Amino acid sequence: MRFALKLCAAAAVFLAAQSGPVQADPNHRILSQMVGSWFGEGQLEYTKIFTFPFKCEIQGQPGAVKAQVDLTGRCWYGPLWGRMAAALRYDKRTGSYRGIFRDATETFIIDLKGKRKGQTVKMDLQQGPQRAAMDVAFENANQLQLTIDLIDPATQGKRQVIDLTLNRLAERTAALDIKPQPKEYSQP
To answer: Would the pTM of this model clear 0.85, i.e. be above it?
Structure first.
């Protein structure tokens, strides 16, 4: 169950990156779009017979370097919740996005990597031998749809486990070159 909630949080982090004003470089724009406050609701299919709703809130801030965004937030299902942090960077040399997701205890770490294809960003999530595929579809400037499929290591078959919608709560607080103060979150 904790793995599932942490996977939800990782998904929300990436979703937060995908909406906002247009800049000249579309790859830089995706990172800039992460800045701001986000809230989302979705469904997680833990097993075929156990599906539950969850919620996430994320705060995006410019990273320490120009082409990076840092995110903090939490996801919850009823009384169960978890904090998270992530960093996502665009690598102009490879034309791809790379990042890392960590839970509050830093015991759950997911490597993020992927590329943008049209209005969808396709990411590979990996933690040791566990893999998942994530698609983020741009619905409009303030809303995105995200799905995550777990990948069976033996067959490479996919099973959708997350369907999440994330909405911008307020206007962006900063561009990538301005560092805003972090927002404090209260426990649910």
So the answer is: no
